[in-house]
Amino acid sequence: MCHTCQVTSTIISRPVCILGIGLIGGSLLRDLHAAGHPVYGYNRSPSGARTATKEGFDVSANLLDTLHRANEEGALIVLATPLPSFGEILDALNAHAPRCGFTDVASVKSRVYEMVRDRGMESRYVGGHPMAGTAQSGWKASHEGLFRSAAWVITFDHACDATPTPEWVELWTDVARMIAAVGAEAIPARVSSHDAAVGRATISRGSLATLAITGDNGGALALSLAAGSFRDGTRVAGTAPSLVRAMCETNSEALVDALDEALTLLNDARAQLTGAHPHIQELTDAGHRSRVRFEARSGALKDSVSPIRISARPVLRVHPGGPDWERQLIQAESLGARIEVF
User: Fold this and answer.
1) pLDDT < 50 stretches in the chain
2) Residues sharing a CB contact under 8 Å with residue 36, sequence separation 6 or more, in sequence order
3) Which of 65, 75, 221, 298 has the most CB atoms lying inside 10 A of its own CB?
4) CA atoms of 59 and 301, how far apart (whole Å)
5) Strand, coil or helix: what is 328?
6) Distance CA 278, CA 273 (A)
7) Is the same domain home to 251 and 293?
């Protein structure tokens, strides 16, 4: 198969309404607008909404007006606000946009799915998480192309928990089409599998924050001598602390498991360094092997926001709603594969 060919249609069957136009929501708005798809948004900050409007985008600072419009048009709503606001937003969706299906871009899925189920909204919801971003935030940080070649998780728990309605299947398909429309790769995962996997990635934010603190505690000379590896390794420590806290604290169980594993490795290394013949051969050799495996799988692109190129991940073709399609999604999840929808 030609790896540059995209099987998944990028034609979304409904308008897209994005709630929150920060880095992720704003970049999604820009990409869909550039693709010519009907898209509009809401931003809590009137100044942010005005700035986006002046740039030619359809953005309002009135949530209720935006939801009423979305309900009239049967839009696909994307929740791109901070996770602590989700409860209030979900209640507003139930009250003012009951016709609309919705997805989200939160980095934690179990907590979101719990809130969705508590409100009986699971038949209207498909979870999402684009693995893309920068240390910057807000509308001014958003830009076209942020998601190109990036992994974008799409959840499918409802297909396993119940017999989904045709409306939910079409909603799931539209989310997959939206992912394809911005050049990202749809990676299916159930919420618990997603959170466990992301917990291992999220631990880097804590460990790299520790690296940044340790370097800073060394004083001016240590910072003056810090080279590119320190700069690159501490980049994510520049992310707004509130965003890092939301990502880590709402996925604490998975994060603790990964942290315990990391601490065991570090304590073993410390014991080896304090022995009669100091060495860290086991840690460095194992780390090198892990990096080589990652690079072999990734085929990294220097100019990509994601270290994975399109041809690197296994590919499974899925027909939404077809026989045993949920089993195909589980298989794709186990392989870390991207899917193409037909």
Assistant:
1) 1-5, 300-311
2) none
3) 75
4) 33
5) helix
6) 4
7) yes
DSSP codes, 62-111: -HHHHHHHHHHHTPEEEE-S-GGGHHHHHHHHHHH-TT--EEE--S--HH
Rounded distance, CA 177 to CA 169, Å? 12
Q: Coil, strand, or helix at residue 198?
A: helix
Query: Sheet holding 128-130: strands in order across?
Result: 128-130, 151-154, 185-188
Cβ-contact 25, 48 below 8 angstroms: no
Phi, psi of 200 (to 5 degrees): -70, -35
Same domain, 120 and 49: yes
- How far is it, in rounded angstroms, from Cα 204 to Cα 227? 19
Count the domains in the chain: 2
The CATH number covering residue 251 comes to 1.10.3660.10
**pLDDT recorded at residue 189:** 96
Residue range(s) defining the domain that contains residue 288: 195-208+236-298
Q: Are residues 169 and 264 in the same domain?
A: no
Q: Is 121 exposed, middle or buried (0-12, 13-18, 19+ CB in 10 A)?
A: middle
Amino acid at the residue 245: R
- Measured distance CA(269)–CA(266) in Å, rounded: 5
CATH for 50: 3.40.50.720
Q: Do 82 and 178 sit in the same domain of this protein?
A: yes
* The predicted structure's pLDDT at residue 13: 97
The pLDDT of residue 78 is 98
Are residues 161 and 243 located together in one domain of the fold? Answer: no
Q: Which stretches of 119-251 are DSSP H helices?
A: 157-161, 166-181, 191-217, 219-225, 228-233, 241-249
Whole-angstrom distance, CA of residue 278 vs CA of residue 276:
6
Determine, yes or no, domain membership for 218.
no
Task: Name the token pair of 145.
Answer: 């192309």
d(CA 270, CA 251): 28
Measured between alpha carbons, how far is 187 from 153 in angstroms, rounded to an integer? Answer: 5
